Amino acid sequence: MKILVTGCAGFIGMHSAARLLKDGHEVVGIDNVNDYYDVALKERRLEQLGSFPEFEFHRFDLADLGALQPVFARHNFDRVLHLAAQAGVRYSLVNPHAYVSANLAAFINILECCRTQKTAHFVYASSSSVYGANAKQPFSTRDAIDHPVSLYAATKRANELMAHSYSHLFNLPTTGLRFFTVYGPWGRPDMSMALFTDAVVAGRPINVFNHGKMRRDFTYVDDIVEGVVRVLDLIPQATQVGRDSYTDPARSAAPFRVFNIGNNSPVPLMDMIGLIEAAVGKKALFNFMPMQPGDVAETSANTDDLEAAVGFRPATPLAVGVGRYVEWHRAYHGL
Q1: CA-to-CA distance for 243 and 263, rounded, in angstroms?
Q2: Contact by Cβ (8 Å): 59, 42
Q3: Which of 37, 99, 124, 152 is catalytic?
Q4: pTM of the model
């Protein structure tokens, strides 16, 4: 197939594009390669993809509809995988307008191009952050999610609602994927795995929020990609099921679905740090701090719907994933 992957210079985007290329698909990638974090890391990711002859790259901002439309005009995409976004919960507190541009304006541009081209399946990245102030664990796609605790989460929830409106109005098949704390080689340097590993190696104190009383459903990137690839072929169908279908946030009478992709095994943050210590061979120093605005104490994914739909449930043990990440971290930084 010919597949558009937005955000291909990003962490999940690079891994997803590489997997699709290895599976024999043609991939067209778009990324603006912004400076939210180290541009050199993004360029190195693009070098990995550039080794595939079936990869075509375009560098521009998806909020620029005039740049996006010609790409759709030149290609008849079988699938569109939209992974580009302004990431980061804490950054949304200081630069909210970046999220409006990257997560809302860009999203409607992609939707409009998919509508015009009658794309067979539009798959996009949502986030576990949409569960916000929900207290019931594990988080289920059947839960109401009306209380986001960060602007980032609000934009991701808005993406799901925008996608549903296009599924309903224009019969555009859309699937949203709520990712849970993704980590692994080539990961973002602003995420906990990279920050903690770097601090332990350098002998600097780790800033640990909520005084370490946090649990996360850490999900290895290869598991995320496996879920993405399987979902790409699971095209939602419009069904005549009556009004009750609209009471389930995860599905609809329209060709619309939402899935969690998480490890379904939340781990205390301090246990994750202990695994980094073991992999690095060095004890961590700690700077315990209160909970940060926009953060939550625990995330846990119910992935029953994903397993029932595509026969897959993420299961990479955290100890295995941390070991692989630390090995990559050492190699990439020449340690």
Answers
A1: 33
A2: no
A3: 152
A4: 0.95
